[in-house]
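ESCALATION

Customer reports they have been waiting on this structure for their group meeting. Please prioritize. Original submission:
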Amino acid sequence: MNATSVVLGIAILAAGTYLLRASGVGLRSWTTIAPMLDRVLATGTAALLLAVAASSAAFDGRALDGFARVIGVAVAAVAAALRAPIIVVVVLAAGATAGLRLLGIQ
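Update from on-call: job pushed to the front of the queue and completed.
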């Protein structure tokens, strides 16, 4: 694979993404979506993003990174659910993970 193929592939993907997003905006004015379906789609998007974030935070490659990181992610999730500011969420998660690793829990 040479540089021209990579650049061409990126350009095609960028154009396709732009056209897909633009068609969504155009179709939105033609059709109406039921409020229930709109809520389900929004919830599905949030659930998908949460699943990707949780799996990438808990795993290091193919294996579980350890209980300290998983507990740190859980602390962050609880703090976020309690609507703590983002800096507080990050500091609590990092502190919990670092504290557990300091105690020897990997």
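Sent to customer with the following note: The longest helix spans residues 3-30.
Escalation resolved.
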